[in-house]
Amino acid sequence: MCRFVIAMVLSVLAVSGNWGATATAQAAAPKRPNVVYIMADELGYFELSCLGNPHLKTPRLDQMAAEGMRFTSALAGSSVCAPTRCCFLTGKHSGHTSVRSNGGGTPLRAEEETIASLLKTAGYATGGFGKWGCGGRGSTGVPEKHGFDVFLGYYDQVHAHSYYPPYIVRNSEEVPLANNRGGSDGETYSHYVIVDAAKQFIRDHKDEPFFCYMPITPPHGIFDIPDDDPAWAIYRDEPWPEQARRYAAMVSMVDRQVGEVLDLLRDLGLEENTLVFFSGDNGGADYFSNKEHPRGIHGANVNPKTGVEYRGKKGNLYEGGLRIPMIARWPGRIAPGQVSDLLWYFPDVLPTVTELAGVAMPDDIDGLSIVPELLGESAAGRPQPTHDYLYWELGGQTAIRMGDIKAIHPGNKRGWELYDLAADPSEQHDLAADRPELLAKLTAAAEAAHTPVEEGVFFDTEIHERDRRAKFGGKDPNGMPAKVEVMPEEGLLPRKRLSIHSFSSEASGNSRLAVHTIDGNPRTHWHTAFSPEVLKHPHELVIDLGGEATVRGLRYLARQDNGWNGALAAVEVAVASSPNGFGEPVAKTTFTKQKQSQELLFEPVQGRYLRLRVLSEVNGGPWASVSELGIVGEALDVPAR
Ligand SMILES: [Ca+2]
Ligand SMILES: [Ca+2]
Fold first, then answer.
1. Contact 365/350 with Cβ under 8 angstroms?
2. What three-state secondary structure class fits 456?
3. Which residues surround ligand 1, an ion (CB under 5 A)?
4. How far does residue 321's CA lie from ligand 1's centre (Å)?
5. How far does the centroid of ligand 1 lie from the alpha carbon of residue 81, in Å?
6. How far apart are CA 542 and CA 93, in angstroms?
7. Residue 568 β-bridge partners
8. CA 529 / ligand 2 centre spacing (Å)
9. What global pTM score does this model have?
10. Ligand 2 centroid to 593 CA: how many Å?
11. Which parts of 409-555 fold into alpha helices (H)?
12. How far is the CA of 105 from the centre of ligand 2 (A)?
């Protein structure tokens, strides 16, 4: 468990979790605010009409900004969906988080605290509605194990691509959506179901403090919106490609729904005790670019008033990948009409919210509370702290920022670049060669900010794969095919003689065990360990043949799902009479990238133990995987049974 420090003790009772124990205590203690956080998936910085976007109409968001505080320098935790959500939920930057890849279901570790689990300790009702992205079903990362009383929507991000899947997920249980067949084919628009549930959650918990997290999926995805949605009529006749019109309609639908949430809070009398945030999740994607609009028809990263562009887009760490719209509104507490240039990012949400709730926060977070900026320094009783640096990493990319100075390493084959964003917001003038000492200062800090990733684990990958298939209505373009290859058994030692003597590693958390190499089931496979760290070649497996045998070869069947990670390339085989007696290999080969069974034959040799040593993988990756192994040969004895 994390160690705790007290960030700000608003109330001894709140911190001890005994809030409301007596009427006297309740009256004496300050009221903890509700928190609603609405996060749109992929809304770019310049896609609000109050920023001058020439196409997109967002009157309710513009109004929300006018009634609260809009931020010009609030940045995403990362530039793609899953990593940025992990920064948001845990208060850590992406050099410390557990979810740094964007595969769709990578899990948080079991013990990790989130905003929800912390608010839970102060008696908050906690609900999440939308796209989770921090752990597929069957993993240590599911939301109901990380502080959420309820989470309705998509756990896996591939599932979330469809607005018409046969089901969505509520606390790991499937919630069927009527007459949906996946993709764009169906009758029940999932996003309506999700937003309705969020509003109902607010109604249900109007008399207690609540945290309503809405990481909604529009305008990302397959760009679908029902033709009878009022937002479609706004753009239906525009002269843009249909996808660009659908996207625009999804933005205006989100705008309307944000308004509905604000109206609901007003109607319930909760407005003045509810802090509402609205933001994007990562930088704009330059969708629908063409010759005339190289940065996309709607210009997510182009200032419509000045033409100044943010370089890059979703997926990289230039400003275009990190700039997001951000608005905070809290009538009576946040003064209206403010525009803040405070430089902050997703890890700061957790300490901000926990401070307001009077909750102790973990001491291993990277975020800083922005309460002084939101409420004013006199109300907060202290000045707004600022970051020594902000840090991002994603795949082979790294970026670090100290004030206006940003160093970025944009990929494996390129060196570090250095920019002064105050003078050069478009990151066009690389200062790396001119300012080597300054660059060295930033890169040293970046190096210190990185720790190796430790992901959570899956207990059951089947249920997660099912959710990914649900995007396509249950058909399976990526997972285990309906028909798989099998290994011919003729000429092999009987499987019942075989056992696994030893192995260098196995992915036990994912149930990809060494014993799966001899279980006769092509749908199960062994995979070497990748958690808590990826283990590299050589990998080894020693099979006990159950007694002395003449060994003539090794038969091998690659993993039979649609993945190739770990599929064998270069291998060598040794045979010995004792598990400690292996000498030189009897044979070496390089297997090819194919799903059919392959065979390595060699001069007959006697022994009881066969050692497979894996030296490389078909795609050059670090791991090994095997669906089935068979030993070509004959027993020399009667198996000891
Ligand atoms: Ca996104
Ligand atoms: Ca198997």
1. yes
2. coil
3. 41-42, 81, 281-282
4. 10
5. 4
6. 41
7. 617
8. 17
9. 0.74
10. 18
11. 436-449, 461-470
12. 23
